[in-house]
Design goal:
Distance between the termini: 40 Å
Largest sheet: 4 strands, antiparallel
CATH architecture of the largest domain: 7 Propeller
InterPro entries: U5_snRNP_Component, WD40/YVTN_repeat-like_dom_sf, WD40_PAC1, WD40_repeat_CS, WD40_repeat_dom_sf, WD40_rpt
CATH superfamily of the largest domain: YVTN repeat-like/Quinoprotein amine dehydrogenase
GO molecular function: RNA binding
Number of domains: 2
Helix content: 10-25%
Shape: globular
CATH topology of the largest domain: Methylamine Dehydrogenase, Chain H
Number of strands: 28
Number of helices: 4
CATH class of the largest domain: Mainly Beta
Radius of gyration: 26 Å
Keywords: mRNA processing, mRNA splicing, Repeat, Ribonucleoprotein, WD repeat
Protein name: U5 small nuclear ribonucleoprotein 40 kDa protein
Pfam families: WD40
Strand content: 35-45%
Length: 425
């Protein structure tokens, strides 16, 4: 039987039967109607994609000056179109109040949208050139920041018509993020360096994160607020420690935060148990010889199990190291100050789009698009590329994680949006 006739037979099977066949063949991990969904409708390149904090809807922004609102589940209906910008919409961002959407555009403006009414709340026009990026504050839904080719970074209060702070730079600023408490602003541009500004001091840059060799296109703060991810046109993604008391020369080795601490705690606990047993043997002078021998056996078994655990953990570490592709992972030994991880070979395109970077809700993965048309999902603590997903026919401008399920969304210059489920979160 030919492949065409086989396809014809499958097409005659009822939808319920097809769903049963798929569910038996693949273990589903999300509530999407299908493991992979293609959303189309934009008439120009799609630059930005973000999931709503409740995970039920998402927003996309495009060169066609429009913002589309989509439903994530069911048939992924495109239920609203937001019009108001006069040029390409470069990024969208949800406020944490879950009622407001923020957008920035090449028309030099920022718009606040009411999601319930699907209309504009405020249209601000302080920037004097293209507004490249926008970011909202997690713990204060009234605060957000924007950056522009006019060499400024602006802090906004959604309750006010004008910006509350303007940071002036000598060159264009292309990426921006804000700390969860709204007290620090991270931004970078064509100077190739990330600057950290404390709004409480309001006088000078607090410190610099220097390590990229080209324009910085995307910045994102981790869910716990301790790390910053940066994407640059030098084809690298770097992870920075932004804790206030971090050592300036602190570098993390592979899995240091998790495996080493856990192993040390386990070994300390077992050594404490061993010492307690020895003390009990010394104190109890009247204990008979058989009991002493039994206690010594227990101690011997405890030491043996401890050694076996250490050997197993070392074997696991060696196995992880062997699985990491040598051409895709760099050593952490010679990283810049505060840089704890680096992922090379995430290619930017000749289009020089401002490719973004994002975090998973658990803070263990980062995601990014690339000029090679792949979607990348990277493990922060194992320094490994977990997924390299094809499908797009153009530069992938942004990738976003769903806030509650193992789902990622991606958008591209090919005008298409993909939703897909991952095997794990």
């Amino acid at each position: 039987m030919s492949s065409n006739s086989q396809a014809l037979i499958v097409s005659d099977i009822s939808q319920k039967t097809q769903d049963l066949i798929i569910s038996q063949r693949f273990q589903r991990t999300s509530g999407l109607k299908s493991p992979i969904l293609l959303l189309s409708g934009h008439e120009g390149e799609v630059y930005s994609i973000k999931f709503h904090p409740d995970g039920e809807t998402l927003a996309t922004a495009s060169f066609d000056k429009k913002i589309f609102l989509w439903k994530v589940y069911g048939d992924c209906e495109q239920y609203a179109t937001l019009k108001g910008h006069k040029n390409a919409v470069l990024e969208v961002c949800y406020s944490n109040d879950k009622k407001t959407l923020l957008s920035c555009s090449a028309d030099q403006t920022v718009i606040l949208w009411d999601l319930n009414k699907e209309s504009k709340i405020r249209h601000v026009r302080e920037h004097r050139s293209v507004v490249n990026a926008i970011s909202s504050c997690l713990n204060d839904p009234t605060k957000f920041v924007s950056c522009s080719n006019d060499s400024t970074v602006k802090l906004w209060d959604s309750r006010k018509s004008k910006s509350t702070l303007t940071i002036k730079e000598p060159f264009a600023v292309t990426s921006v993020a804000v700390s969860h408490d709204g007290q620090q602003i991270f931004y970078g541009g064509i100077e190739n360096v990330i600057k950290v500004f404390d709004i409480r001091k309001n006088d000078d840059v607090l410190y610099y994160l220097d390590g990229h060799n080209e324009l910085i296109s995307g910045l994102s703060v981790s869910p716990d607020g301790s790390l910053l991810a940066s994407f640059s046109m030098d084809n690298t993604i770097k992870i920075w420690d932004i804790n206030p008391f971090s050592s300036e020369n602190q570098n993390y080795n592979e899995n240091q935060n998790y495996e080493n601490n856990e192993n040390n705690n386990e070994n300390d606990n077992e050594n404490d148990n061993e010492n307690e047993m020895n003390e009990e043997i010394d104190e109890d002078e009247d204990e008979d010889e058989n009991q002493k021998i039994e206690n010594q056996k227990n101690i011997h078994h405890l030491n043996e199990s401890t050694r076996k655990m250490e050997i197993d953990e070392n074997n696991k570490k060696d196995q992880i190291k062997e699985e990491i592709p040598k051409e895709q992972v760099e050593s952490t030994e010679n990283l810049p100050s505060r840089c704890v991880m680096q992922f090379p070979n995430i290619i930017h395109s000749l289009e020089y789009n401002l490719l973004k970077v994002g975090w998973s809700p658990d803070g263990e993965m980062v995601c990014a698009g690339s000029g090679d048309r792949f979607v990348y999902v990277l493990s922060v603590y194992s320094n490994n590329i977990l997924y390299k997903l094809p499908g797009h026919y153009g530069c992938v401008n942004e990738v976003a994680f769903h806030p509650k399920e193992p789902i990622i969304g991606s958008c591209s210059t090919d005008r298409k949006i993909y939703l897909g489920e991952l095997m794990r979160f």
